[in-house]
Design goal:
The strands form two sheets. Strands 1, 2, 3, 4, 5, 6, 8, 11, 13, 14, 15 and 16 form a twelve-stranded antiparallel sheet that branches. Strands 7-12-9-10 form a four-stranded antiparallel sheet. α6 crosses α9. The mean pLDDT is 93. The chain is of the alpha+beta class and 332 residues long. The chain has nine helices and 16 strands.
């Protein structure tokens, strides 16, 4: 294991038996669905997609305007959830969910010795797909992605105004296949720092502070790979004989040899300093409310001179929040 600053690299993450189990888990999972299903329908940020911040930044750096029409196909990976909260739905994934390597890395990174795995999910990218640079969605006492848009939580994180309520979460990403390109890239020294690349190699892994460190995935396949034939509602599933199929309403649209796909599994855990911190979280005694957070952000924007007079409408306010607080790496 290599450990530098806020990340750890693992050259051999699981035993050969357990790594093979992770591959079988994906094969037996069933249908992987598209991550981006559409914009939020109601509430604050209605009309914006869940990661509007990352998508808007990606669009701003497109060199060829014609690429805009391929946006959904380029960025919409396929996801399958193996475990959520305390429930493990796929026993073959247990070795990774309960990884002592990731647990130790999480405790060391956060300085919080109580580590509770909270989520495990697989991501599959097709040739021609990539993942825009972003930071992950954090959680706060009283506010998380289950009750507010994800970009809003990212705004909260980058504003630095709500640290006293932040839940301390770390993540590990493990690769269980080999593919052309599709490197994991990240900025361990901040958005202005140097970009680092981690190649996709079977049974290797990285653990890092994904809520603070900008990261993403380079394009899978050749640099000029065409976007896949993605349309809303499509699914991806294993069809046997080392082949995956892209389907729509049960019809096979495209077949892919397994080595052409980028397959990774992400682990997340909540980290606590002691039992008192756990009780505070579980009691909801000091939870934030959406109204309180929005009011606090508006007050800060007024202090910066960015809001004068009446409160902007929700769409304008959401855009102002993202533009003000989320500072992406230049050139991405």
């Amino acid at each position: 294991m290599a450990h530098i600053n806020r990340y750890s690299l693992f050259e051999q993450f699981l035993s050969e038996k357990d790594a093979a189990s992770m591959q079988r888990c994906a094969q037996e999972f069933g249908a992987f669905t598209m991550y981006i299903q559409g914009p939020v329908a109601e509430g604050f940020g209605a009309g914006l997609v869940r990661r509007h911040d990352a998508v808007a930044n990606y669009i701003s750096h497109l060199k060829d305007p014609a690429e805009f029409q391929h946006l959904l196909a380029r960025l919409n990976l396929f996801r399958g959830t193996y475990a959520l909260h305390d429930e493990l739905d796929h026993p073959l994934a247990a070795p990774m969910l309960h990884s002592p390597k990731f647990a130790a890395a999480a405790a060391a990174l956060t300085g919080r010795p109580i580590v509770r795995p909270s989520m495990l999910y697989a991501n599959i990218l097709l040739p021609g797909q990539e993942l825009a640079v972003h930071t992950d969605t954090p959680e706060y006492r009283g506010i998380d992605k289950w009750n507010m848009p994800e970009w809003f939580l990212v705004v909260m994180m980058h504003s630095g105004l709500f640290e006293d309520w932040r839940k301390h979460i770390t993540a590990g990403v493990a690769f269980f296949g080999d593919c052309e390109a599709g490197e994991f890239f990240f900025y361990p020294d901040g958005a202005e720092g140097k970009r680092m690349l981690v190649p996709v190699r079977y049974n290797t892994a990285i653990h890092l502070d994904v809520d603070r460190i900008f990261h993403g995935v380079a394009r899978v396949g050749s640099a000029d790979a065409s976007p896949p034939p993605i349309e809303p509602g499509m699914m991806l599933r294993y069809a046997g004989d080392d082949t995956w199929v892209l389907t729509q309403n049960g019809d096979v649209i495209q077949k892919y040899p397994a080595p052409k796909l980028r397959f990774s599994v992400q682990w997340k855990a909540n980290c606590y300093a002691d039992e008192a911190e756990i009780r505070l979280v579980e009691s909801h005694a000091d939870d934030l409310t959406t109204e309180r957070v929005i009011d606090h952000l508006i007050a800060d924007l007024r202090k910066r001179g960015l809001i004068k007079g009446e409160r902007p409408n929700n769409h304008a306010l959401a855009t102002l929040m993202m533009d003000t607080y989320i500072r992406f790496p230049p050139g991405e």
